[in-house]
Every structure is written in C-alpha cells, then in structure tokens.
Amino acid sequence: MNPFEMVVAIIIVITVGKVVSTRIQAKHGIASDEEGNPVTMVDPDAGRLREEVKYLKERVAVLEKIATDDRGARELENEIEKLRDQ
Questions:
Q1: What is the share, in percent, of the chain residues with pLDDT greater than 90?
Q2: What are phi and psi of 44, to 5 degrees?
Q3: Can you tell me the distance from the alpha carbon of 64 to that of 86, in angstroms, rounded to the nearest whole number?
Q4: Taking the mean position of all CA atoms in its chain, how far away is CA 19?
Q5: Which residues pair with 39 in a beta bridge?
Q6: What is the pLDDT of residues 2-31, one digit of tens each?
Q7: Are 31 and 38 in contact (CB under 8 A)?
Q8: pLDDT tens sequence across 28-49
Q9: Smaller CB count within 10 Å for the chain: N or C?
Q10: b/e per residue 8-35 (b: at least 16 CB within 10 A)
Q11: Are the C-beta atoms of 30 and 41 separated by less than 8 Å?
Q12: DSSP, residue by residue, 11-66
C-alpha cells in the first residue's frame, strides 16, 4: 500500500467514524452548536406531554380507588340502580 492510498484509507475511516458518532448522538437527542459543543435538543411538546401524563396518572389513581374501595363500589352500585328505577 503506497502512502497516498494509506492517507485516503485513514480519511475514509475517520469520516465513517464521524458519521456513525453523529447518528448515535442524534438518536439520543444530542446535537452540536456552531462551535461543536454538545447541546441537548428540547422537544417543544415535552412540557405538554408531561402535563398530560400527570393528569392521566391522577385519573387512573382515582379509578383504581373507586374499583378497589368496596364500600364506594356498593354505594355506586346502589346509585346506578336508583337511576335505573327512575
């Protein structure tokens, strides 16, 4: 292998390594600014989605409480029967 081929091979290896590194960083939400410093990308919908998940967890907790509370279930059943009788 002559020196020119070795230089070309080194450049190809470095380029492929940089491409793979950039893809892995992008997959994990890390980008680079103009100076090459890593910057975490922020999803604009992240805050809204967190609030929605929090709201849904609260609703699930209430539903679990209703489903597991035996006294409340009997009262709920009685109320449903009263409504059916009307």
A1: 31
A2: -65, -25
A3: 29
A4: 24
A5: 31
A6: 889 999 999 999 999 999 988 888 887 777
A7: yes
A8: 777 777 777 777 767 778 788 8
A9: C
A10: eeeeeeeeeeeeeeeeeeeeeeeeeeee
A11: yes
A12: HHHHHHHHHHHHHHHHHTTEEE-TTS-EEE---TTHHHHHHHHHHHHHHHHHHHHH
Instruction: Write down how long the chain is.
Output: 86
Q: Write down the pLDDT at residue 73.
A: 67
Q: Could you identify the residue written with the tokens 């292998």?
A: 1
AA identity, residue 40 = T
Across 39-56, b (16+ Cβ under 10 Å) vs e yields eeeeeeeeeeeeeeeeee
Distance between start and end Cα atoms, the chain: 95
User: How many whole angstroms separate alpha carbon 43 and alpha carbon 40?
Assistant: 10
